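Aim 2, interim progress. The first record below pairs a target sequence with its structure tokens.
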Amino acid sequence: MSAGKLNTNITLDHMVIVVSDLDEAIKNFNSLGFLVERGGVNGLAHNALIFFRDGTYIELISTISPRTRAFFRLLCSTGIMSLLGRIRPSITQRFFSWFSQPPGLRDWCFRTSSLDNTISHLRANGIEALDAKQYSRTRPDGEVATWRLAGTLSRNLPFFIEDETPTEVRVPFKDACQHPNGVNGISAVVLRRDQGVKALQALKRCFLSESAGDEEYRIGDVTIRLADSLSAPALALEVKSNGEFKGALPASQTSNALIVVD
């Protein structure tokens, strides 16, 4: 049973695709009919963003230096990353782990109007939530966006974001959401069944679900559901479009992310 109602607005914010080369990824997504905006620099990484009319977006992210990514792979392969996570768990390790894995759709994020309330609510529902940390990104125009992030020890669950500067500073989606391919939003996040069952149960326990069934959870206009196949990727994405193309986008141009246009 849920430990009370969360008096905080929760929506899907964005999906994270780790790419090997940001410039190449931008060209590939442009060729698929997406407008891609450079996001800026955040520490050792830089990113680009694909904004949608519904306020969600896809983040393409890569380390600035290939050597940095090789270093994260080394930390992971030697077990040092896992050891650090046990000694002093932090959401930062979650982000470092992105770059120790092959390119692909690696994470998802919910936006909250109160990160502190969300953390308390997760903990009250028996989920080990990590303390919040502040982050910032300098945009190409020099403006700085700042926000706070928190996650859970379970990386199958999303992490959470609360903006400190106005959300429009971090996500100026209104200026770049008229995609030539007609894609206008995210319709579903699909979780691999073996990893997703517990995540789905936790989401339903913590946040009121609009769905009565056991196979899905709705957050606003976005459905979170389980994949039919055990061989499915850990995360997949479905986007809605008023264009002519329907079906899966070629993995060779999406950095191996499974994105289906419906």
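The second target in this work package is listed in the same format:
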Amino acid sequence: MRRAMNSEAAPSLLGVTLRRSFTTGRFFLGYGSAISVVLGVSLALSPGSAFASTFPFLLPIFVVVGSMGAMVVFTNDRIKGVLEYLLAYGYSPRRLFVTFLLTALALSAVVLSVAVAAGLGVYLIRGHQFTTQFATLLVLYAIPMSIASSAFAATVGMLWTSLSSPRAGMNSPIGLIPLIGILPCLVTLFLLTTLAAAGIFSPAELLLIAAGVVGAVVLIVVALLSTLGRFLRRERLLSPA
């Protein structure tokens, strides 16, 4: 009870974690935003409907990369003992995880906003119409998959970092988590491409399948978060092993 009360009374870390992630993870945020903008503008300048049909499916891949700033801060804090200090101050592991998860989602929202605004702006300036089909792809797949994949990458990364020996650089989870984070996007692209080539499903049915994959990713994230109390004890984060 005492720990719970201390945790509740401790001030929120979300604001400072956001600022630190923007600064420390500026490479990932800048790279994810830049490559998303380049992709969107390039497709928007292409003839035909390449932007409307392709951009929503590729966008989540780069949004995940842009959200990795939160994992950089989490990994650094784990290595330097900052998490140990925060736990001693009264924060619970669950509250720390939620803080970094929300930070990752905020970073992904920044990349999403910049990329969609740039690509769609150029697309409309060139005289194309904002169609219902494109809006549906954004609402049912691109935006939800970007958020879900970023949450998946952050959750797996934090669990991995917490349950393993602290390491820096490419030997740490941050070196591989971007690849793990984009797996849902790549699996969806492969699945849709294979099914489209087979001609079994209509475009509307393929979109529903894509939305189903997004739902599956969300369920995986929820399942991982539900294991925090069982696998991530306070003593584990305090342990150097």
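The radius of gyration is 19 Å. This observation will shape the mutagenesis plan for the next reporting period.
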